[in-house]
Amino acid sequence: MAEVLVVVEATREFGVKKVTLEMLTLARGLGTPSAVVLGGAGAADALSAKLGEYGAEKIYAAESEEIDGHLVAPKATVLAELVNRVQPAAVLLASAQEGKEIAARLAVKLDNGILTDVVGLDADGTATQVAFAGSTIVKSKVTKGLPLVTVRPNSVTPTPAAATPAVEQLTVAVTDTDKLAKVVERVAEQKGSRPELTEAGIVVSGGRGVGNADNFKLVEELADLLGGAVGASRAAVDSGYYPHQFQVGQTGKTVSPQLYVALGISGAIQHRAGMQTSKTIVAVNKDGEAPIFELADYGVVGDLFKIVPQAAEEIRKRK
Amino acid sequence: MNIVVLVKQVPDSGADRNLRADDNTVDRGSANNVINEMDEYAIEEALKIKEAHGGEVTILTMGPDRATESIRKALSMGPDAAVHVLDDALHGSCAVATSKVLAAALGQLGADLVICGAESTDGRVQVMPHMLAERLGVAALTGARKLTVDGGTLTVERQTEEGYEVVTASTPAVVSVWDTINEPRYPSFKGIMAAKKKPVKTLSLADLGVAPTEVGFEGATSAVVEHTRRPPRSGGAKITDEGEGGVKLVEFLATEKFV
């Protein structure tokens, strides 16, 4: 069976991201998964055990300061060379900012079609996408070149399939043009050890109804009790209650968790665009007519400042 | 500094949107078409740079006839001129082909800086800035929440999931911006009147030296096979809190095995 290249998404702090395991799972339906690690020195070592656990038969490692110290372009160059050499059956990347950007450059380099925000992938390369704020399901195909797709987190359940991957170091040969955008600093702003927003199985979000930045502690407390991530509506972000990287909606992140808890969020279309493919939706809002209740599997009309602390207390009791 | 801002006309994301039944493209005929929201932030950023450093701001749009409305709207915010890539053969173009056309137009315009929104609200594909940078052989500083211009050096704070990265490059470059970067101005009455007289140049594929076979359905590198409407979600139980709302909420979560 032909190789399927899976470009690994990982963080320094948490290692291999869940979307990578989802991609390895999807890749097994198309061929033999090979993981591609693009990063700084020693990047692959820390990740190989996990990648093998989910079926990576091979790991291609491109480790270099040139990759780590520049934005995206060197990664695309290394990947393009690898694709030309191994002629894979498909290339999978994460449908997040960087994955899409690498894929974009790869598509141009190879004059190859690209499909983003894919939530399912058939053996023949037909991809399923969800468009227009979750209202339309689209089946698409790359018609020129190989299936080059970016996979949206929380699309499939990762299933282990033990393999013992052989690691092959790639030679990194990048051009001066690839080194035009220099990364001079990386600043972490993530608070605590909560799961990453787009990957979390549970997301607890606050909106304008939370009232101020300090009150977001309530949202965080409930998220922590449920083991979830914290999100925020655009209204809450625009009001300065919570940082923008946690914004869920049309101009923020799209999430698709098992459980989405909306606290003090009216459910404007801008917000619904980013969360309405969640499996179960729960809402607390003082306005019984708020559109969020049209989506919610369970809604409580009332004061979130009474309901949320009571719910938190009840969860503690049950633990 | 000569700045080109990419503006895309999209169906209003606040209204119902569809793909066309006949050719699977975005239905623009029945939609209320507006400037892609993120592009207004790109225009604002360009105008701020012009105000601080001088130069010209040009709008670049590829789209059908009716995209003219969005071009005039963009000009009413303050840019100097616009270029409209207009050609019937473009209908059905994929992202890869679109980038080829826009890169050809940018090649003619010779901008120091190209600014665009991080993504459009219709496709949300997010690939255009890097596709253009790849084709033009220039730097791409993408996902900016802050942009600083110091002579020919650009520095951005790039929003990431963990926080942000500080990334620098020299012009010429492509920069894409999120809606956290600024607060777009509203067009003034004077701006709206002035926009009517600003030059809008139309370029065809022939003007750009791109063959019709490289774009549209014929040149597309991907295709929509089918599309269906997802059944809308329906609301479930809704209770009014009478003192036990929090407990009842947790009971529901427990039945769903979340607690």
TrEMBL record, chain A:
<comment type="similarity">
    <text>Belongs to the ETF alpha-subunit/FixB family.</text>
</comment>
<dbReference type="InterPro" id="IPR014731">
    <property type="entry name" value="ETF_asu_C"/>
</dbReference>
<dbReference type="Pfam" id="PF00766">
    <property type="entry name" value="ETF_alpha"/>
</dbReference>
<keyword id="KW-0249">Electron transport</keyword>
<dbReference type="Pfam" id="PF01012">
    <property type="entry name" value="ETF"/>
</dbReference>
<dbReference type="InterPro" id="IPR029035">
    <property type="entry name" value="DHS-like_NAD/FAD-binding_dom"/>
</dbReference>
<comment type="subunit">
    <text>Heterodimer of an alpha and a beta subunit.</text>
</comment>
<protein>
    <submittedName>
        <fullName>Electron transfer flavoprotein subunit alpha/FixB family protein</fullName>
    </submittedName>
</protein>
<keyword id="KW-0285">Flavoprotein</keyword>
<dbReference type="InterPro" id="IPR001308">
    <property type="entry name" value="ETF_a/FixB"/>
</dbReference>
<comment type="function">
    <text>The electron transfer flavoprotein serves as a specific electron acceptor for other dehydrogenases. It transfers the electrons to the main respiratory chain via ETF-ubiquinone oxidoreductase (ETF dehydrogenase).</text>
</comment>
<dbReference type="InterPro" id="IPR018206">
    <property type="entry name" value="ETF_asu_C_CS"/>
</dbReference>
<dbReference type="InterPro" id="IPR014729">
    <property type="entry name" value="Rossmann-like_a/b/a_fold"/>
</dbReference>
<feature type="domain" description="Electron transfer flavoprotein alpha/beta-subunit N-terminal">
    <location>
        <begin position="4"/>
        <end position="187"/>
    </location>
</feature>
<keyword id="KW-0274">FAD</keyword>
<keyword id="KW-0813">Transport</keyword>
<dbReference type="InterPro" id="IPR014730">
    <property type="entry name" value="ETF_a/b_N"/>
</dbReference>
TrEMBL record, chain B:
<dbReference type="InterPro" id="IPR014730">
    <property type="entry name" value="ETF_a/b_N"/>
</dbReference>
<keyword id="KW-0249">Electron transport</keyword>
<keyword id="KW-0813">Transport</keyword>
<dbReference type="InterPro" id="IPR014729">
    <property type="entry name" value="Rossmann-like_a/b/a_fold"/>
</dbReference>
<comment type="subunit">
    <text>Heterodimer of an alpha and a beta subunit.</text>
</comment>
<comment type="similarity">
    <text>Belongs to the ETF beta-subunit/FixA family.</text>
</comment>
<dbReference type="InterPro" id="IPR033948">
    <property type="entry name" value="ETF_beta_N"/>
</dbReference>
<dbReference type="InterPro" id="IPR000049">
    <property type="entry name" value="ET-Flavoprotein_bsu_CS"/>
</dbReference>
<dbReference type="InterPro" id="IPR012255">
    <property type="entry name" value="ETF_b"/>
</dbReference>
<comment type="function">
    <text>The electron transfer flavoprotein serves as a specific electron acceptor for other dehydrogenases. It transfers the electrons to the main respiratory chain via ETF-ubiquinone oxidoreductase (ETF dehydrogenase).</text>
</comment>
<dbReference type="Pfam" id="PF01012">
    <property type="entry name" value="ETF"/>
</dbReference>
<protein>
    <recommendedName>
        <fullName>Electron transfer flavoprotein subunit beta</fullName>
    </recommendedName>
</protein>
<feature type="domain" description="Electron transfer flavoprotein alpha/beta-subunit N-terminal">
    <location>
        <begin position="23"/>
        <end position="212"/>
    </location>
</feature>
